[in-house]
Amino acid sequence: MKMEEFEVNPWDVKGVVDYEKLVKDFGISRLDEKVLKRIEKITGELHPMLRRGVFFAHRDFEWLLNEYEKGNKFFLYTGCGPSGPLHLGHIGTWLFTKWLQDKFDAALYFQFTDDEKFLFKNKSYEEIQKYLEDNMADVAALGFDPRKTHFLIDTRHASLLYPIAIKFAKKITFSIVKASFGMTNEDNIGKIFYTAMQAAPAVVPSVLAKKNIPCLIPLGVDQDPHFRVARDVYPKLGYYKPAILHSVFWPALKGPEGKMSSSDESSAIFLHDTPKDVERKIKKYAFSGGRDTIDEHRKLGGNPDVDVSFQFLKFMFIEDDAELARIESEYRSGRMLTSELKAIAIKKINAFLKKHQKKRAKITQKVLERNWLWAS
Ligand code: TRP
Fold first, then answer.
1. What is the atom index within ligand 1 of the atom nearest the CA of 11?
2. Ligand 1 atom nearest 90 alpha carbon
3. How far, in Å, CA of 375 to CA of 149, rounded?
4. pTM (two decimals)
5. CA of 361 to the centre of ligand 1 (A)
6. Does the C-beta of 111 come closer than 6 Å to ligand 1?
7. Residue to substitute in 78, 83, 191 for testing ligand 1 pocket (most ligand atoms within 8 angstroms of CB)
8. How far is the CA of 78 from the centre of ligand 1 (A)?
9. pLDDT value at position 259?
């Protein structure tokens, strides 16, 4: 792959992503000053991920706010594909979703696509079920309001989802799926159907309430193609098109190419990692914007724009803009060394994981059944 080439689809992210080009290719809109101001007016403050461009684009978000201001409240929908242990790259979107839930007092439908991961990954059904249990406990520990949050598992809640999914499936042809995802005649037939399952939760509350309710989907931009395919279908079935907020990818530990991935230990920090794991991985793998020698670094300064430890702090671990700006300028000037920057990242990440792991330990199977799983 040449330097300027990159690839983004729901199952693969390769190369250095050019988000400007992606906005054009996908036909999505930038979250510009005007939209951000509107959000701030309603919520009273902007989440750091909005201020710092982690969420950078949208579809129909202004329509959603118009509806909201008319008193037509929306619900949130997002999801998790259980194919391995969760890492930091997964949870940015969900922490932001929790913020939206709090600020807009919105219900959340959270889909777990065990069918998808079984069909697309070279893993057994049993293995996927194990990750499903594991991932659900992590998601439940992130702080969503259990009274307003409903977990949907594709295989378990099939009696709810399948009748909706077939209505989407009937209006999506194999040639559209081929063109959108690069599938071929050799792909299994479950994969070809899958987009219909991911489209379905965006109308579940409308189906249950027997009236149209607007939907907002926060997602990593790699998931957009499913909804691009499904968008034409929603109105054909009599529903609103869902609005979408798109986030950039979390950088892989090793550098700017691709994204964090659970299949590569050295690319990710997992939610179950110990303080020692985190220290080792950041020290050993985290791509640095520092110079080769201390002398050079002091003279020329570091580059926070490519430094993965700095990106972590910016994306999630430092909320205070002044604190982040101070670290950025210290590093850029060369006064702060890479080892010092890494020490800050290690400390912040470990503080977060410690709290998370404590909350997660309380989420048993029983708690999931009682408080989180959708029940008719
Ligand atoms: N397909 C997503 C994944 O592999 C999971 C998912 C299901 C999802 N529904 C979603 C993600 C809606 C974002 C929005 O992780």
1. 4
2. 15
3. 11
4. 0.96
5. 25
6. yes
7. 78
8. 6
9. 74
Q: Is 79 in the pocket of ligand 1 (CB under 6 A)?
A: yes
Going from the N-terminus, what domains does the chain have, and what CATH number goes with each? 7-248 (3.40.50.620), 265-360 (1.10.240.10)
- At residue 368, the pLDDT reads 97
- Ligand 1 contacts CB of residue 78 (under 6 A): yes
| pLDDT for residue 69 | 96
- Segment 108-155, tens digit of pLDDT: 999 999 999 999 999 999 999 999 999 999 999 999 999 999 999 999
Residue ranges, the chain, pLDDT below 50: none
Write down the pLDDT at residue 353: 98
Q: Is 221 in the pocket of ligand 1 (CB under 6 A)?
A: no
- Which of 219, 224, 259, 262 has most ligand 1 atoms within 8 Å of CB, for mutation? 219
How much is the pLDDT for 55?
A: 98
pLDDT of res. 3? 56
